[in-house]
Amino acid sequence: MTYYRFADRMIHAPASFIDELFRVSGEPGVISFAGGLPDAALIDRDGIARAAGAVMEEEGRCALQYSTTDGYRPLREYIAARYRRRLGIAAEADDIQIVNGSQQCLDLMAKIFLNPGDAVGMERPGYLGAIEAFSLYEPEICTVPLGDRGPDMEAFGALIHNRAPKFFYGIPNSQNPSGITYPDDARREIARLLDGSGTLFYEDDAFGELFFDGTPRPPVKKYLPDGAVLSGSFSKIVAPGMRIGWILAPPPVLQQFNAAKQAADLHSNFLCQVVLHHYLSDTDLDAHVRRVSRIYGERCRTMCDLIDDRLPAGVARTTPEGGMFLMVFLPPGVSSMDIFREGVRHGVAVLPGVPFYAGGGGEHAIRLNFSNADETNIVEGMERLARVVRGCV
Amino acid sequence: MTYYRFADRMIHAPASFIDELFRVSGEPGVISFAGGLPDAALIDRDGIARAAGAVMEEEGRCALQYSTTDGYRPLREYIAARYRRRLGIAAEADDIQIVNGSQQCLDLMAKIFLNPGDAVGMERPGYLGAIEAFSLYEPEICTVPLGDRGPDMEAFGALIHNRAPKFFYGIPNSQNPSGITYPDDARREIARLLDGSGTLFYEDDAFGELFFDGTPRPPVKKYLPDGAVLSGSFSKIVAPGMRIGWILAPPPVLQQFNAAKQAADLHSNFLCQVVLHHYLSDTDLDAHVRRVSRIYGERCRTMCDLIDDRLPAGVARTTPEGGMFLMVFLPPGVSSMDIFREGVRHGVAVLPGVPFYAGGGGEHAIRLNFSNADETNIVEGMERLARVVRGCV
Question: Which residues of chain B have pLDDT under 70?
Fold first, then answer.
């Protein structure tokens, strides 16, 4: 008899793409628009190094000891104060739980809410990491088409009314994979439709600091304080390797979330929480974020211009206002999997859209990342991609 | 309608004690034997600080970027080489996955193996964090009494035969909470009973480096290579605040484990993985572990002697060979909850046994931690405890 009698949830899990991405992205000579990395050259290495040195000197033993599940209180106070100042939403340290990057929120939100067979809503296309995390809890993933004006509101309303999903997961700011930002009226309408519905809005805000114009957009949570949870991350604005994100949630949710977090791994890396807080206390994060956003904005415009200039007729794209991604839609008959395979042969990696479409679709969509290639590589990579696409049309 | 329609698994979850422990442990004037902390004074703060400085200088941007799910390869090579040298078991980097402290192994092992209603085996008493992690997957937790000679082999064999649990979770080295170490014949017998049974042995080895005599014990995995997974942690031998543990598992298990880890949080804190590896490459871990083990051994002997000298007749205790805990059994009629409450009033915190007994029991047992109090505090704390127990008998 085999020892390896895995749980049913593992059999249902979709095969993962994310690790393969990192592999393809790293092949020599390949210009990669496939990954989802911020530009490491923009990480404030020296500032973080100074903070690490000071923490080890002043409070190293404490930062190296076990800590509590909720997270380092001064860091949670910083996050809460930033919410109050930037977005004008009520937030206190006690409303916040630190996690291992906002991916952990996906796992724990699914864990505390989803029974097998429960409906859960998300955008189509939607974030691949969310599909992977949710799938292990065996829900029925119900998708709503996402367009330039946000989620299709008729489909959204019907989903909430007919299926009463436990929560709807969305990324209103510079969505992954599409780069779409919900307009303000869509945010208000979502709050109106969810108010009192029994469906929570799970608002993933990994990219909200990276608007190219530097202007924050009001979160859905502002219009739906008790009916929304909001997750955030330092991965894109400070450094991903520290794996520090958080969730802002109403007290009943936070209590269950905390219990699930404790069972999952006791607490997040405490040393990096203390180092990160020391760094933030000593740096002008606004200025840093403005600089990163400006550079990503330039790269995005370069990429958009090259798509418009070089790719054949019939190609469409999204127009990001921020973030790290945009989406290209190929003409009918052109397969994104073919573009992926041919692209790697010609030295450019893109990400096929299929895994982002939980309900099927995406055969003609590709996701492009513009944050982790400089202007030279964007120009050269887009030339290669243009040749590949023209060869496939 | 409320937004907070939690999953059934949360309703079944036992209330947690662990965070409360930290709170009680921190009250001023209380000498705490209740927690589970290594002594922060024994952490090599200066060595880790040097490693952190060097990593930030030499490869900071890389260590601050996203990485792969499996973990930093040089660190996995270090762990594998240490297994080969210390324990004589076959291990390569590819057999190892890095996690956020070995608590995350508990969550992910339960996630990949347990359907609701599945049987899972563990010791009685058993590790509280395991009971909490497993419970969220709604298994039937089946316990086997643990005594000075290891698990009751008759009960163990009957459990495997009658219930075919997906895995049996045990801590053969200096078990938490009892401090009991399985003798070698128990290890061989477990491997014999499990061989070909379909039940995996999940061997948690958080304390195996902390034998007071400095001699490693052979893991069950040595006798059952394909039928055991072995988890380990740097929390007790380097520093808990970095949250770095690992699992050594056969390839089919590791593949599912890796998929679950990726969905849970993409990867563990990469900065600390690189810093930890740099530290380990530059330090004599054997010498450090010998020193820590010797000091814990002295504290354990002091505590054992005071139990024998000062506590009333009818009190029994375990005799640890290593680790950080021992267990005291009070005379019938004396409640460990009373001792807990009275203890805090008299300035000494102990941990009642009840939450460690998944199948019920433990009313007269208390767990004492000897790693995180120096000799002076052990003497004073045990005097206080003796007064409390004498007052309750």
Answer: 1, 12-26
Would you give the distance in Å from CA B297 to the centre of its chain? 18
For residue B147, the cross-strand partners are: B150
- Which of A1, A2, A3 would you mutate first to test chain B, the one with the most B CBs within 10 A? A3
Note if the bond before B225 is cis, omega within 30 degrees: no
* B183's tokens: 């003798």
Segment A362-366 mean pLDDT: 95
Residue B116's CB: how many other CB atoms inside 10 A? Answer: 15
Among the listed residues A385, A318, A304, the one whose alpha carbon sits nearest the alpha carbon of residue A125: A318
Say if CB B51 and CB B385 are below 8 A apart.
no
Q: What integer is the mean pLDDT of A84-109?
A: 97
Given an 8 Å threshold on Cβ–Cβ distance, is A45 in contact with B64?
yes
Contact A103 B269 (CB under 8 A): no
Give me Rg for the CA atoms of chain A.
21
Q: Which of A5, A22, A239 sits opposite B198 (nearest CB)?
A: A5
Task: Write out the two tokens for A158.
Answer: 């019907």
CB B215 within 8 A of CB B50: no
pLDDT in tens, A273-311: 999 999 999 999 999 999 999 999 999 999 999 999 999
CB B101 within 8 A of CB B123: no
**Of B70, B266, B267, B369, which to mutate for an interface test with A (greatest number of A Cβ within 10 Å)?**
B266
Q: Range with the lowest mean pLDDT among A1-5, A150-154, A220-224, B286-290?
A: A1-5
Question: DSSP string spanning B257-287?
Answer: HHHHHHHHHSS--HHHHHHHHHHHHTS-HHH
Contact B70, B50 (CB under 8 A): no
Complete domains list, chain B, with CATH: 8-44+286-392 (3.90.1150.10), 61-281 (3.40.640.10)
CA distance A113 to A110: 5
Find the residue in B nearest to A268 (Cα): B243
Burial of A62 (0-12, 13-18, 19+ CB in 10 A): middle
Phi, psi of B326 (to 5 degrees): -140, 170
Global pTM reads 0.97
C-beta neighbour count of B213 within 10 angstroms: 10
Task: For residue B314, give how far its alpha carbon lies from the nearest alpha carbon of chain A (Å).
Answer: 35
Neighbours of B28 (CB within 10 A): 5
Largest interatomic CA distance in chain B: 62
Instruction: Name the one residue in this structure whose structure tokens are 């990342």.
Output: A369
B7 to chain A: nearest residue by CA?
A113
Which residue of A13, A63, A101 is in closest CB contact with B266? Answer: A101
Q: Reduced to 3 DSSP states, what percent helix, strand and coil does chain A have, rounded to the nearest 5?
A: 50, 15, 35
For residues A210 and A293, the answer to whether their CB atoms sit within 8 Å is: yes
